[in-house]
Amino acid sequence: MSDKEEPNPEDDKNFWVDRAKTGRSGCKKCKQKIDTGTVRIAKMGYNPFGSGKMKQWHHIDCILEVFKKQRQTTAKIEVVDDMGGWDDLTPEDQEEVLSRFPESLRESNKDRDVPERKIPSSSEKKSKTPKKKAVAYFCLIRPLCFQNV
Question: Which family does it belong to (predicted)?
């Protein structure tokens, strides 16, 4: 009676790549429309309209600029297996994407071995900025409100 589906490993990808089916999607970096048939890459982000994640589409060159400016700890495309939809692309589209990425990604595509990602230990993580304790101004003002006049 249970119709549970097997979890799809493609659903856990942080990035997606495909050809634009319509010309309606816009690049999140340059704010220009992505033309129909153009190869585009999406970064998965939180959906402000509901639960789950949504795809934030970018031109290939724009997402590379985003990668240059982001923090070291933020997810990047390190191997082609980080991108969902990679196997659905034609070999020409795959070559177009790889030609714009650094040499290290092109080399990883030849081997198709996914190296284990280094997970920083708790001692390597930066400590959080300590939060300031709130001063209870209400307690300082309240006695003045109840003075006998």
Answer: Belongs to the ATP-dependent DNA ligase family.
In this structure, are residues 16 and 83 in contact, taking their beta carbons and an 8 Å threshold?
yes
The pairs formed by 64-72 with CB atoms below 8 angstroms and a separation of 24 or more are: 64/100, 64/101, 65/29, 66/29
Tell me the pTM: 0.63
* Residue 22, both tokens: 């319509």
Domains of the chain: 15-100 (3.30.1740.10)
* C-beta separation of 41 from 75 below 8 A: no
pLDDT tens-digit map of 34-87: 999 999 999 999 888 888 899 999 999 999 999 999 898 888 888 888 899 999
